[in-house]
HAT C-terminal dimerisation domain-containing protein
Amino acid sequence: MRVLPRLIESTDADHLQATDDHWGRLPLVTLNEDTKTMTVDEFWHHLSTLEDFGARRLFRELGEFALDALVVPHSNASCEHVFSKEKDWSHPAGRSRLRQ
């Protein structure tokens, strides 16, 4: 959570604690075999909707945190690609030089 501080407000101690508790509890849960074939986002969505016998969601905060973290771009390569493709549009030939 320190690496992605904007996903959870640092002033929301209850939310931080719940997410941390869920992370600690995750290894203790036996998951169905079908979770092995899920995509990453399907897995975290499934985990966020798991309920106990009292219909309480077991990993809601952790699942939502993971799904939020998945949408954070891990590089700016796609953005750079768009700019390099549009280079001809934004800088026509000869226009990029300074005139004397």
Remarks:
- Residues 4 and 72 are 9 Å apart (CA to CA).
- DSSP finds five helices and no strands in the chain.
- The two ends are 52 Å apart (CA to CA).
- The helical segments are 13-25, 40-49, 60-70, 77-85, 87-90.
